[in-house]
Design a protein that fits this description.
3-stranded antiparallel sheet, kinase, 216 residues, P-loop_NTPase, binds BIS(adenosine)-5'-pentaphosphate, binds zinc ion, Rossmann fold, 5-stranded parallel sheet, alpha/beta, transferase, Adenylate_kinase_lid-dom, single chain, 48% helix
């Protein structure tokens, strides 16, 4: 299956993507995680991305689209993938459409996670991620690690993301509304969108998402 996950910052895309990718045996491709891995390895791509991410802005399309395509060309993505955080504007959605058409692939579903803004703010404020791998995600209240400040998956140190400060979160939400939300209509025109509520326990949301994907 080829799936795009859309939703505001803090909606739980990364959290759900880990479970869904495992259930469906497809790789979880998160452009945010790819950028953070490049930043921690000090690559030129990471250096370029860092200033935009810190400011809560989108990293330029020419950097992002190339990186996403490279990842989709890896062997583990040959029969499907779950995209988390890409595409994030109309230009990226059009580039993805063109790439899929050129390579004889097509999307099966676009899953839109809906969450009220006050819940998003609570989720982001309590989020802690792992220094070794930013896809290891916890929440101080909603999904606390077994040991304070330590990743359950790999034992790495947990910390708060640079872009999770309040003023940056507000900027990211504004960018989501102005640049990312329009891709939902772009995909509605292709009859691919299913909107689900991302409120409730993590497992409940995963079950809802799996049901929505089966219906498609
Ligand atoms: P990215 O990393 O994609 O961030 P985001 O879209 O803002 O989303 P988040 O990672 O903040 O949230 P999430 O929805 O994954 O929630 P999570 O599962 O962690 O992008 C970061 C930056 O990179 C961008 O601002 C941009 O600069 C750049 N970038 C990335 N992609 C780009 C692109 N395509 N083009 C240009 N620039 C790009 O959950 C949040 C918290 O809530 C966690 O603590 C979790 O434990 C908790 N939680 C999750 N589910 C539940 C639940 N059901 N109940 C209670 N708590 C929950
Ligand atoms: Zn970890």
């Amino acid at each position: 299956m080829r799936i795009v996950l859309v939703g505001p910052p803090g909606a739980g895309k990364g959290t759900q993507a880990s479970f869904l990718a495992e259930n469906l045996s497809i790789p979880h491709i998160s452009t945010g995680d790819l950028f953070r891995a490049n930043i921690s390895q000090g690559t030129p791509l990471g250096q370029k991305a860092q200033e935009y991410m810190r400011a809560g802005q989108l990293v330029p399309d020419e950097v992002t689209i190339g990186m996403a395509k490279d990842r989709m060309q890896e062997p583990d993505a040959a029969s499907g993938f779950l995209l988390d955080g890409f595409p994030r504007n109309i230009a990226q959605a059009e580039a993805l459409d063109a790439y899929l058409a050129e390579t004889g692939q097509k999307l099966d579903a676009v899953l839109d996670l809906e969450v009220p803004e006050d819940e998003v703010v609570k989720r982001i404020a309590g989020r802690r991620i792992c220094r070794n791998d930013s896809s290891h995600v916890f929440h101080v209240e909603y999904s606390p690690p077994k040991q304070d400040g330590v990743c359950d998956v790999c034992g790495g140190e947990l910390y708060q993301r640079d872009d999770d400060r309040e003023e940056t979160v507000r900027k990211r939400l504004a960018v989501y509304h102005s640049e990312t939300e329009p891709i939902i209509d772009h995909y509605k025109a292709q009859d691919l969108v299913t909107t689900i509520s991302a409120l409730g326990e993590v497992g409940e949301v995963t079950a809802r998402a799996m049901q929505a994907l089966r219906r498609d």
